[in-house]
């Protein structure tokens, strides 16, 4: 179904489109409607999409609503899963572009953990046997969606590759509640952002935890490996839903990480906005958001003691297996010799520059490295990042 002439007030059409796409009708509680309404209005007032981008933005919304429908249907079929306790999930977070993805993919090679595969984030269901995925229509559709996305912005693969059957970010689930930083990162919608910053994400996190219970329903006791940079901005909500979480926080000089993040976001937004992306607006917003997130996290960490393991991007780049071993030792996980060998092969065979180098300049986003270092000075000094140049080329270890 084509995008409407106006997004504002199109809630009924959006629900109808998602139901037609899935054959399902139960969207669950209506607590997502406020955020959806604000977002739809922002798409009219803030966004300047291309003709194709307008259709893509509508398709994104239909996809999120379809994910809600599949989630509700999964809970209807497996209500028992909602009583499962998720014990000691291993959660990777930290400022974006600080090595979270590379660490996540490396740890996901250990089959003692279960993770959130990309296609299941789009169509939540009890995880089927892996041998059946290729024949699953939802898996096939998710793969086509990724191929189409990267066909529009192929350079994004060098900055942040997504693979249909590999682990992905929790953010893909959190957006189901329409109170999520995902929309701010993917679309130029400052009026939605202003509303979002005043909201609690705790209801989003409660739904997210129940989605994980659904996906892992057949293996409720298998530990979860999760990753989302945005968890660092919502540590309190994360710990309310997972009070015994094992938290891994990655660290990188913000003067390196922040411009890299802005570059990735600008590429993602080009899918909808074409060359009309307002680059200068990205830098200031992201700088303020992540500085506040890191400052709040420092305050909360004081009460967590040994439940946080810190990973310096430079150390992970130079000795990834050493970091993994220290991490396992810290939390009491066992690193099997066969898994270690698998990780060693992955490190040797997976240079992220295979899709090209990720190149950018801070000035494109209204940023200056020294100004960033001043703004993030307290955080950088606390974790030994201040005044240190990160001379690793972007892409050598995917951030």
Automatic annotation (TrEMBL):
<protein>
    <submittedName>
        <fullName>Sulfotransferase</fullName>
    </submittedName>
</protein>
<dbReference type="GO" id="GO:0016740">
    <property type="term" value="F:transferase activity"/>
</dbReference>
<dbReference type="InterPro" id="IPR027417">
    <property type="entry name" value="P-loop_NTPase"/>
</dbReference>
<keyword id="KW-0808">Transferase</keyword>
<dbReference type="Pfam" id="PF13469">
    <property type="entry name" value="Sulfotransfer_3"/>
</dbReference>
<dbReference type="InterPro" id="IPR052736">
    <property type="entry name" value="Stf3_sulfotransferase"/>
</dbReference>
């Amino acid at each position: 179904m084509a995008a409407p002439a106006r997004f504002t007030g199109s809630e009924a059409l959006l629900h109808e489109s998602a139901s037609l796409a899935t054959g399902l009708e139960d969207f669950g509680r209506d607590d997502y409607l406020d955020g959806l309404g604000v977002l739809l209005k922002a798409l009219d007032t803030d966004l300047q999409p291309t003709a194709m981008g307008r259709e893509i933005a509508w398709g994104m919304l239909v996809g999120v609503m379809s994910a809600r429908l599949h989630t509700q249907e999964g809970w209807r079929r497996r209500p028992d899963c909602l009583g499962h306790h998720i014990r000691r999930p291993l959660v990777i977070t930290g400022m974006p572009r600080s090595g979270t993805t590379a660490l996540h993919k490396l740890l996901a090679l250990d089959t003692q953990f279960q993770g959130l595969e990309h296609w299941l984030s789009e169509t939540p269901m009890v995880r089927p046997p892996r041998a059946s995925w290729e024949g699953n229509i939802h898996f096939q559709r998710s793969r086509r969606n990724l191929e189409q996305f990267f066909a529009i912005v192929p350079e994004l693969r060098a900055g942040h590759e997504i693979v249909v059957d590999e682990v992905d970010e929790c953010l893909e689930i959190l957006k189901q509640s329409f109170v999520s930083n995902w929309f701010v990162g993917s679309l130029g919608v400052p009026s939605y952002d202003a509303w979002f910053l005043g909201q609690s994400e705790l209801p989003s996190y409660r739904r997210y935890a129940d989605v994980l219970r659904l996906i892992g329903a057949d293996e409720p006791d298998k530990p979860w490996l999760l990753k989302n940079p945005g968890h660092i901005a919502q540590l309190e909500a994360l710990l309310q839903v997972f009070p015994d979480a094992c938290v891994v926080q990655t660290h990188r000089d913000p003067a390196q990480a922040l411009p890299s993040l802005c570059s990735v976001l600008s590429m993602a937004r080009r899918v909808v906005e074409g060359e009309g992306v307002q680059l200068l607006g990205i830098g200031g917003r992201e700088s303020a958001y992540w500085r506040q997130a890191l400052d709040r996290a420092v305050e909360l960490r004081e009460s967590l003691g040994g439940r946080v393991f810190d990973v310096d991007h430079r150390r992970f780049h130079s000795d990834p297996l050493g970091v993994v071993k220290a991490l396992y030792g810290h939390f009491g996980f066992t690193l099997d010799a066969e898994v270690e060998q698998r990780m060693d092969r992955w490190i040797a065979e997976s240079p992220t520059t295979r899709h090209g180098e990720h190149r950018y300049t801070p000035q494109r986003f209204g940023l200056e490295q020294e100004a960033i270092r001043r703004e993030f000075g307290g955080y950088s000094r606390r974790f030994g990042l201040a005044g240190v140049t990160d001379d690793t080329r972007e892409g050598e270890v995917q951030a």
